[in-house]
Design goal:
By secondary structure, the chain is α+β, with helices and mostly antiparallel strands. The protein contains two helices and six strands; from the N terminus they run H-E-E-E-E-H-E-E.
Length: about 120
Amino acid sequence: MLNRRGLVLSLTTGLVALVLVVGTVLADELLGTIIKVDADAKVIVVVPKDSDKEIKIKVTDKTEVSKKGGFEKVDLEKLTKAVEKAQDKGQKGIQAKVTYEDGVASKIERIRKKASQ
């Protein structure tokens, strides 16, 4: 009885690990600059770090954005203001790592430069 339980536990653990690995492989990550946010169409425009090509990525209600201490649901108005503020400072936009699948973003992680000491 104990051996059968151990086998079932091992198979279940292996299956869960396989699902987690396959799930993370399917999602793409894009490291670049968010240069435009269209709140009405729920689209962000990202320029990859190694290219000048603009990529449009849709944003849904499930999309999360990083903040201090974790993640929260994306607020496109706040994101628009952040991009405009960065552009007013002479930057191209805000640096971010966007995790997406099939053109739909799941996570947006802002990359903040640490203050020089």
